[in-house]
Structure formats: structure tokens, C-alpha cells
Specification:
The protein is mainly beta. Helices cover about 5% and strands about 50% of the residues. The strands form 2 sheets. Strands 2, 4, 5, 6, 9, 10 and 11 form a 7-stranded mixed β-sheet that branches. Strands 1-3-8-7 form a 4-stranded antiparallel β-sheet, with no helix packed on it. A hairpin with a 4-residue loop joins strand 7 (about 70-75) and strand 8.
């Protein structure tokens, strides 16, 4: 059984730099494209950053490009999202997602409607 567990987040001041982590168990993590979606109540979820199984290819949505950095450590089965220069508009529930690489690469995962596996989400609230 695949489990996706996020950590990090919470209340952060504008301009802050928190890091989200996500651990994936029960699956060959290196064979999975993984990334982060976020959702604000009343809006569709948005794929903000996704990374290939080998970490060589990364996709960023325009809304976070230049501010967020996605990386992964396959030995630790962990995904990291370094968030810098946070803005009020970054307030959202952040979800870690994973999909077998043979199904979707990073851009298709992030720009598509869904992913095979989702975490429970971690709230990030940016205070001004």
C-alpha cells in the first residue's frame, strides 16, 4: 500500500522560507514522478512543481518559478519543496503527489487534472 506523508508548513511570515517534505513508502520511489499541488478553498487545485524519478527534469508553474525549488532524495524516499519569498497568495493546502513515471513525466503530472497517489495535505498560511 502506497503512503504519501507530508510535513512542514504552518504559519509563516511573508517573505519567509519554509521547506515542505514528503515521504513516499510502499512504492519504488525512484520510478515515480512526484510533485506538489496546492489548493485554495473554492478554487481548483494547481500543480506547482513536479520532478522526474531521477531528479533530472523539473517543472515549475509560473506562479512559483524563481521562488520555489523542488528536489528529491531517492535513497530517503523523500521529496523537498524549498519555498522562498512567500507571499499572501501562497496561502493554501499543499499536497504531495506521485505517479509512476511511465504514466506521466513532470510537466504532464503538474498540468494534468490528477495524480495516482496523494498525501493528506499540509496547510501553509502566510501572514503579512
Amino acid at each position: 500500500q502506497v503512503q504519501v506523508v507530508e510535513s512542514g508548513g504552518g504559519l509563516v511570515q511573508a517573505g519567509g522560507s519554509p521547506r515542505l517534505s514528503c515521504t513516499v513508502s510502499g512504492a519504488p520511489f525512484a520510478s515515480y514522478t512526484a510533485g506538489w499541488f496546492r489548493q485554495v478553498p473554492g478554487k481548483e487545485h494547481e500543480g506547482i512543481s513536479c520532478i522526474s524519478g531521477d531528479g533530472a527534469t523539473t517543472y515549475y508553474a509560473d506562479s512559483v518559478k524563481g521562488r520555489f525549488t523542488l528536489s528529491r532524495d531517492n535513497a530517503k524516499r523523500t521529496l523537498y519543496l524549498q519555498m522562498n519569498s512567500l507571499e499572501a497568495e501562497d496561502t493554501a493546502m499543499y499536497y504531495c503527489v506521485a505517479t509512476p513515471s511511465y504514466i506521466k513525466g513532470p510537466q504532464r503530472l503538474c498540468t494534468g487534472p490528477t495524480a495516482r497517489y496523494w498525501g493528506q495535505g499540509t496547510q501553509v498560511t502566510v501572514s503579512s
